[in-house]
Amino acid sequence: MREHERKESEGEVKELREVKKRAPVRRSRKEECEAYGRPFEGCGMQSDYDVTTKLGEGTFGEVHKAIHRSSRRVVALKRILMHNEKEGMPVTALREIKILKALQHPCIVEILDMFVVRSKHRCNGKDSPLSVYMVFPYMDHDLAGLLENERVKLQPSHIKLYMKQLLEGTEYMHRNHILHRDMKAANLLISNDGSLRIADFGLARAFDPAGGRGHDRGKERKYTNCVVTRWYRPPELLLGARQYGGEVDIWGIGCVLGEMFMRRPILPGTTDVDQLEKIWALCGTPNQHTWPNYDDLPGCEGVKRFDTTYSRRLRQAYDSIGAETCDLLDKLLTCNPSDRITATDALDHDYFWTDPLPADPKTLPSYEASHEFDRRGRRNQPPAGPHMQPDGQYRPPQAQPPPLYFGQPPPHRDTFHNGPPRGQMQVGYSQRPPHGHPPFPPGPPYGHPLNGPYPPAGQPPGPPLYRQGDRWEPPKDRPGHLPPRPPPPLGRGGGGYHNRDQRRGGYAGGGRGGGGLNYG
Amino acid sequence: MSAALVPLASLSQIERTPSGEDGLPADLEDDLKAFGCKLIHQAGILLKQKQVAVATAQILFHRFWFVTSMKQFGIGDVGMGALYLASKLEECPLRMRDLINVYDLLLQRATHTLALHSSPNANPDFKYAPMSYFGTTFYDLKDALVVAEMQILKRLGFNVHVVLPYGTLVNYLRVLGLTSREDACTRAWGYLNDALQTPVYALYAIPTIVSAAILLTTRHLHISLPSTPPNCWWDLFDAAWEDVWCVCGYIMRLYRDRDMVERVRVVGMVGKKEVRRWLEENVAEQ
Fold first, then answer.
1. Between B4, B48, B67, which is nearest A102 by CB?
2. Out of A23, A87, A101, whose CB is closest to B96?
3. Which CATH class is domain A47-476?
């Protein structure tokens, strides 16, 4: 064995020596052109694409499915709306494009083309809005839509396959000093051949790998903490941390892992404070021992002290998903960011090296396309006139009894989706329309491990736990003890989310128009 | 990610530049590009902008002229748009108002230089006249700025990834054992900065350009390095001699003595209208 190894290493040394002696590479002009030749090419044209169906819509614009005319390739067109054309191209969009063009990895969505259109049809005489489109390969599903589809049954090996790709993509991203900052199920695209790709880099940015822990303290760069959809937001961001690194994405990955087993978001907080409460209830209230100096952080909406002290019960709550899975989840959902597992270490976790191994992508069944938008499109068809309120808000039918779900109606995924009011930063691949959110459901319990019965162990996790049709219908009256409804989603420029990154020598937002670009 | 290759001009793009196709002579085109880059550089200094953003702007500016003719866009507007865009890309955004004010000053100074040459009796002291409150100058420049930014993005296919040469230079100087020669380091650094006024960053890979800066430095300072085949120092950096020599040529041509007519000609062609007029006067007759 030893000898064999030594032989091998000797072989390597020999090879190295040979490499040293090698003559410098002399490429012919033609070979050089093939190696380096990436001439300047402009954008594509709108006329290159046949638009077929709409996939999503939101405050940011919309996503369309289209076919590239010459190659017949199916693509998704994501429109960047120029909300403040006076300031030129939004920085957030520039970041997204630059990052997507730089990252090349099988687990990260690739950008195929861009094109710019000056919309003519809506021309009011003078300035017609300019739209920029990004072209992506079409993917059949996003994870949120897939989890919602009752016909989709995810086996633990399928989940492992998705987790592996998710972590590989994240590892690559973090190795290249990019933070995603909006990790959630809806931003993970999945195709029928079992490949998962991380999408929506609308909030992504480069970060300093030294992360303030390094040499020159005091000069650390500060980032905004108003990122990541609330249910996937890690405790340090909720507590107002302005210096962070890859850990913020890892927390989101933990939430996604739990979600794949539970089939619904595992930490659906209604407000930022409530979000922290839910986290403490699952992961234990931090103390100086588990998270030294956590109380140095600014705190969440003025709240720094938490009256009830919970102890960590994540392992008990997720006991049924398997020992290794539970251990990985435990390490991903660690409150102290410096103790949280990194993507590199997570890929080396026993979870990926024990039975069942990640599924072979070829064995995956293929499902009909399920984008959140497709599904909500079907769901939100108003069943009859009276239910459609004048404001366009869908209200449930009056006389229907609340459906039973462990004694409580389950919330529909959409209701979770008010998330944090991210304001103008909402650029998503699969986003909800600004209207038509059903009202918030009567809160917990959700059959959630924390506050409701959990399906008996042994029962395969996953498939729908409620079966009263496609649509969740909340009861007519909202009981008083339930938490308040979340605020309506804010559009661009909404509510106080203008914190920008503090930058060295930059402008602290001086004369820039309030609701416009977010440089954060 | 840093391994991502930056786009470079193809042979056909180099041989037939859009401005050249419109009749602009190659030497005039190069001089105009250099002047546009000087304006970017001056604006960057006046705005106390980071050199990273200024250099990025200059490289984007050069790329742009391989896909667009100076008959369509002026070097002033495109330079302004490039600096605005590069500042966003390098996370040090500029205020539009500041950038426009600075460019207005630079353009007024150019006009003043012209006036000085056409009539020797003019007042030799330049005095900046701020934009009038109700005038349209600001809005005209602002529109031009937004258009230029979008055109750069669109015509370059949003490929705005730029690699700067400075880190590579430090590595190469270390490899060659030249870090103790402070004069050599400074000079090589200066050549890289001056090279930003030439199109080489849109033509050659970074190792070639850095090798050219080192070659010029060592020749000027009489530092000998192994240069006889098969032991050539530039081979260490995968640079071909012909390419390195060509980059040296581009840089040295910047320092060529230009007579007064040539100098003034460039200052008077900052906008596309002046370029068009020049083309009508000088090319149409032929």
1. B4
2. A87
3. mainly alpha
